[in-house]
From TrEMBL:
<dbReference type="InterPro" id="IPR023612">
    <property type="entry name" value="Peptidase_M4"/>
</dbReference>
<dbReference type="GO" id="GO:0005576">
    <property type="term" value="C:extracellular region"/>
</dbReference>
<feature type="active site">
    <location>
        <position position="172"/>
    </location>
</feature>
<keyword id="KW-0645">Protease</keyword>
<feature type="active site" description="Proton donor">
    <location>
        <position position="273"/>
    </location>
</feature>
<comment type="similarity">
    <text>Belongs to the peptidase M4 family.</text>
</comment>
<keyword id="KW-0378">Hydrolase</keyword>
<dbReference type="GO" id="GO:0046872">
    <property type="term" value="F:metal ion binding"/>
</dbReference>
<feature type="domain" description="Peptidase M4">
    <location>
        <begin position="73"/>
        <end position="179"/>
    </location>
</feature>
<dbReference type="GO" id="GO:0006508">
    <property type="term" value="P:proteolysis"/>
</dbReference>
<dbReference type="InterPro" id="IPR001570">
    <property type="entry name" value="Peptidase_M4_C_domain"/>
</dbReference>
<dbReference type="Pfam" id="PF02868">
    <property type="entry name" value="Peptidase_M4_C"/>
</dbReference>
<keyword id="KW-0482">Metalloprotease</keyword>
<keyword id="KW-0479">Metal-binding</keyword>
<protein>
    <recommendedName>
        <fullName>Neutral metalloproteinase</fullName>
        <ecNumber>3.4.24.-</ecNumber>
    </recommendedName>
</protein>
<keyword id="KW-0964">Secreted</keyword>
<keyword id="KW-0862">Zinc</keyword>
């Protein structure tokens, strides 16, 4: 698929920042409002880039196929992208831990897609991976803007440096994989699938990097991002959606785990970061039922659906669940453990498979 969606995808959803913007602590509220304003400007810029056409991206010279082509930039707390180049592919680590974490996270994501699925970078054709760190002042987010990754340092009160969590890096780059494949529309259930695909592959990046099996994995998205005073473990939990945080300032995790608790809302593009908990939980159930390395059988099935050409841009959850069953049977045959596990997983969250 050559067309790409005009989506500007952030790891921290707008509904959570809206909540923080009303906090009693003026510093917390100010950082959230600043982040919301910056995100709104970037979202508009992304739409304009899509309409007008982006500049062509050129491969890095002398970089063989199947190897990453990473460049890290430093915005020096400004918003002009990409910023000052601070580390190129193959260069030695710098004294800046944030730069080095970004570089390593891009590499871990590249390796998952190459080693597990035979994909050469996020577009399948060796696309260079660019990232900018130290973006803006007290910026409480990280995002994929259709061309590159961008990381804020957090405000230190609610969020810490967004390069800390390798699954966040994997999550945002996986939006690029979706952009170049199924191109899921960023609204409603198709948007929630878009977000869920990023959570799935972000979690798999972390699991593979750590060498964790499905049983050993924490199944958290953004663990380590919340400041010590915040009552919470992460931004989202695939194992137990709705339990990632419960804090007086941050609020309570609103994600449902099943269709019985599906959230009908006009905010957050129709709840793309909220209802993604349902397909997230289905993947967790599928992967843990199979056991072993989740990026292998379970991840392969999700990748097959994402890249197989049958997933419509406006697909809903039921469309996706049925396609995973087809993908399982195409790859592993009907009636086997994979077939039983995927049907059971979707049934548990309340979605059809026939």
């Amino acid at each position: 698929m050559t067309a790409t969606a005009p989506a500007f995808c952030t790891i921290v959803p707008p509904h959570l920042l809206d909540h923080l913007a009303r906090a009693a602590d003026p510093d917390v509220a100010a950082a959230a409002r600043r982040t919301l304003v910056t995100d709104a400007a970037n979202r508009t810029a992304r739409r304009l880039t899509t309409v007008m056409g982006a500049a062509a991206v050129h491969a890095v010279a002398d970089a063989p196929a199947g190897t990453p082509k990473r460049t890290i930039y430093d915005a020096r707390h400004g918003t002009a992208l990409p910023g000052r180049k601070v580390r190129a592919e193959g260069a030695e680590p710098t004294k800046d831990a944030t730069v080095n974490r970004a570089y390593a996270g891009l590499g871990a994501t590249f390796e998952l897609f190459r080693d597990a699925y035979g994909r050469d970078s996020i577009n399948g054709s060796g696309l260079p991976l660019d990232a900018t760190v130290h973006y803006d002042e007290d910026y409480n987010n990280a995002f994929w803007n259709g061309d590159q990754m961008v990381f804020g340092d957090g405000d230190g009160r609610i969020f810490l440096d967004f390069t800390i969590a390798v699954d966040v890096i994997g999550h945002e780059l996986a939006h690029g994989v979706t952009q170049y494949t199924a191109n899921l529309a960023y609204f409603g259930q198709s948007g929630a699938l878009n977000e869920s695909m990023s959570d799935v592959f972000g979690s798999l990046v972390k699991q593979k990097a750590l060498g964790h099996t499905a049983e050993q994995a924490d199944w958290l998205i953004g663990a380590g991002l919340l400041a010590p005073a915040v009552q919470g473990r992460a931004l989202r939990s695939m194992k137990a959606p709705g339990t990632a945080y419960d804090d007086d300032v941050l609020g309570k995790d609103p994600q449902p785990a099943t269709m019985d608790d599906y959230v009908h809302t006009g905010s957050d593009n129709g709840g793309v970061h909220i209802n993604s908990g349902i397909p997230n939980h289905a993947f967790y159930l599928f992967a843990t039922e199979l056991g072993g390395n989740a990026w292998e059988r379970a991840g392969q099935v999700w990748y097959d659906v994402l890249t197989g050409g049958r997933l419509a841009v406006d697909a809903d959850f039921a469309d996706f669940s049925r396609l995973t069953v087809t993908a399982v049977r195409d790859r592993f045959g009907a009636g086997g453990p994979e077939d039983d596990a995927v049907v059971k997983a979707w049934s548990t969250v309340g979605l059809p498979t026939e």
